[in-house]
Fold:
Amino acid sequence: MLFGKKKAKPKKKFSITAAGVEVFRAPLIEIPLKEQTIIEKSIQFFDDPEPCYIHRGAVVTRLADELAQAAEAAGGSLEADTLKEEYKNWIAFEGIESIRLIEE
Structure:
């Protein structure tokens, strides 16, 4: 198939469960982070307490990558017993029970 369409790669997404219900499923970069987390990490990474959209995007990308790597290392899913409190504190949902890395 010289000129055929390329097969689309499955996109990695996060699935977040809280109180037994999936509350989020979207591409990694769309993970909802708390504003306080974005500011704290922007200060840590860039010494910028008022991050512009470029620094915000970089913070979200770094944290999403860190969560994805942790999930992959744990077999694709971070469950309540293996989910670091730090990760729970980053995300803008309360009562997180699991974060799964899925491909769709």
User: Anything to note?
Assistant: Residues 21 and 93 are 12 Å apart (CA to CA). DSSP finds three helices and four strands in the chain.
